[in-house]
Design brief:
Blueprint: E1 2-10, H1 14-31, E2 35-40, H2 45-51, H3 57-65, E3 68-73, H4 77-80, H5 89-99, E4 104-110, H6 123-126, E5 130-136, E6 146-149, E7 154-157, H7 163-179, E8 183-188, H8 194-207, E9 214-219, H9 220-229, E10 236-239, H10 241-253, E11 262-266, E12 272-275, H11 292-305, H12 309-324, H13 340-353
Parallel strand pairs: 1-2, 1-3, 3-12, 5-10, 8-9, 8-10
Antiparallel strand pairs: 4-5, 4-11, 6-7, 11-12
The protein binds 3-isopropylmalic acid and manganese (II) ion (MN).
Length: about 350
């Protein structure tokens, strides 16, 4: 099969972790005789520095004509500490999501047995925890009307959702739940927010179309608590953009490290595969960042964008083996830690030899 991939490494540790993921992608392509074609494009702070735009038109064109996008991370402290900056790296990510129509962000939360001792939660609470958070990605407060008034002394952001936007993401949630353990938790703040009340209304209208699936409703504050108290009670969780952003960072720590969780963003055009963590600028260029989230994102790319399940599985097996053998970076190492590039080499080599 021909695999035509756009690579957007971005900022901070982005280039290093994407490089490791590409080692595994190349190893898989070789092993399964796929014809791999890939091209790099600019995004984030590096794109602002070079061309003044965090998601330049050439990058968008490349994404549109590719079959999948592998994305690293974006963000740079020189913008974080300057609230007056008019162009920000994050705008590149948001523009990409909007222009590619990536309305669904799939964030699986899975634990590795050999890492359970790394979780801040007790072993019996996390052992076997396995759920998927489906985060709506192109609506809500991220994209609603925002601005300043009263000479800049009042600021506002608005959370807007349409029935159609809610329906399409809930539908995806039900489809996932149907293939998994048949439970969908709709997370909202319907006791306070009008947009959440519409979410709940739409979900209540759809529920009866999925009689095999148990629909559960949960306020976001309660969900934040239950994720750490009873992570095993979740199967598929679906929620709006910002709640999903916050809850998945929280969920990631139960697995032992934020450096482990991959994601897939899907919608109208090309799908994007990226780790859920950020650009970790303190570690940039040091060869210490954990590449596993990006490598697992590449596994999701094979499974979701190309429907190549075996290829995805071999990557997952290789990652599990590296963790079991403690060939891991300092965030999760017991004793000796390996470099980012060494972990990437080990995983790619495992795949080639398998
Ligand atoms: C994420 C990130 C982004 C988000 C930032 C970088 C804009 O935190 O992908 O979760 O908030 O969506
Ligand atoms: Mn986030």
């Amino acid at each position: 099969m021909k695999l035509n991939i756009a690579i957007l490494s971005g900022d901070g540790i982005g280039p290093e972790i994407v490089e490791q993921a590409m080692k595994t992608v190349k190893a898989v392509a070789k092993k399964f005789n796929h014809e791999l074609e890939y091209e790099y494009a600019l995004t984030g702070a590096v794109a602002i520095d070079k061309v003044g735009d965090p998601y330049p038109p050439e990058t968008h064109e490349l994404c549109m004509k590719s079959d999948a996008v592998l994305f690293g991370a974006i963000g740079d402290p020189k913008f974080d500490n300057n609230p007056k900056a008019t162009v920000r790296p994050e705008q590149g990510l948001l523009a990409m999501r909007k222009k590619l129509g990536l309305y669904a962000n799939i964030r699986p939360v899975e634990t590795f047995d050999s890492l359970l001792h790394r979780s801040p939660l007790r072993r019996e609470l996390v052992e076997g925890a396995d759920f998927v958070c489906i985060r709506e990605l192109t609506g809500g407060i991220y994209f609603g009307e925002k601005g300043r008034k009263d000479n800049g002394d009042t600021a506002f952001d608005t959370c807007t959702y349409t029935r159609a936007e809610i329906e399409r993401i809930l539908k995806l949630g039900y489809e996932f739940a149907a293939k998994r353990n048949k439970k969908l938790t709709v997370v909202d703040k319907a006791n306070v927010l009008e947009s959440s009340r519409l979410w709940r209304e739409v979900a209540q209208g759809m529920e009866q179309n999925y009689p095999d699936i148990k629909t559960e409703y949960m306020f976001v504050d309660n969900a934040a608590m239950q994720i750490i108290q009873w992570p095993k009670n979740f199967d598929v969780m679906v929620t709006e953009n910002m709640f999903g952003d916050i809850l998945t960072d929280e969920a990631s720590v139960i697995t032992g490290s934020l450096g482990l969780l991959p994601s897939a963003s899907m919608g109208i055009h090309t799908s994007v595969f990226e780790p859920i963590h950020g650009s970790y600028p303190q570690a940039a260029g040091k060869d210490i960042a954990n590449p596993i989230a990006t490598i697992l994102s590449a596994a999701m790319m094979f499974e979701y964008a190309f429907d190549l399940k075996e290829e995805g599985k071999i990557i997952r097996d290789a990652v599990a083996a590296s963790i079991a053998e403690n060939i891991v970076t300092e965030d999760i190492a017991e004793g000796q830690a390996f470099k980012t590039s060494e972990v990437g080499d080990w995983i790619a080599n495992y795949i080639s030899k398998k």
